Amino acid sequence: MKGIVFTEFLELVEDKFGLEMVDKIISSSDLESNGVYTSVGTYSFSEMLQLLQHLSKNTGLSIDNLLLVYAEHFFSVLEDSYPGLLATYNDPIEMISSIENHIHVEVRKIYPDAELPTFEVLEKTQNSLVMIYTSSRAMHHFGLGLMNKTFEHFNSTANIVLEKIKEDGTEVKFIITKN
User: Fold this and answer.
1) CA distances from 176 to 1, 98, 123, 126, 157 (A)
2) pTM confidence score
3) Distance (Å, rounded) from C-alpha 164 to C-alpha 120?
4) How far is CA 107 from CA 19, 85, 116, 172, in A?
5) What's the angle, vertex CA 119, arms to CA 115 and CA 124, rounded to 5?
6) Which of 40, 67, 80, 100 could form a disulfide with 142 if both were Cys (CB 3.0 to 4.6 A apart)?
7) For residue 104, which of 131, 124, 121, 112 has the smallest C-alpha distance?
8) Cβ atoms of residues 134 and 118 within 8 Å
9) Per-residue pLDDT tens over the stretch 93-151
10) Contact status, residue 67 vs residue 52, Cβ threshold 8 Å
């Protein structure tokens, strides 16, 4: 997992819960990196999972809810860092449906060894989208949060239903209906 995911996560934790919480979740975890991350480094997903588990334990928030909040933060990072990418689109359905064939292609140019989830578009209309998310990392709520922020970015709203195809969350169907 790319380091930017870790550095931004710890920045969010500091902003929302304080520096003491950052120290607490790092100290409580058994991290090969010792909690020292660079945005261009590559780290084990197990480290992110440990950090999320300890943050959940210390805040009483579920990991899914923490991933939603983190996705909102991360979207703002994308807005600030890659405004040209977002400016390519005029519509949230277009942007979300292009994750696999455009956005992930651009991400791989920056981070060639990034392990990204896949998004298979099953159905697409002007106002709806059905996609299958597949990832060994089961961070579908992070994807859901990014989708929510995408609609917000375009001053739009949607009903997004998440259906787990596999109980462990490694395969999920997103059914998106633009309001």
Assistant:
1) 27, 14, 10, 11, 10
2) 0.90
3) 15
4) 30, 10, 9, 22
5) 160
6) 67
7) 112
8) yes
9) 999 999 988 888 888 887 788 788 999 999 999 999 999 999 988 889 999 999 999 99
10) yes
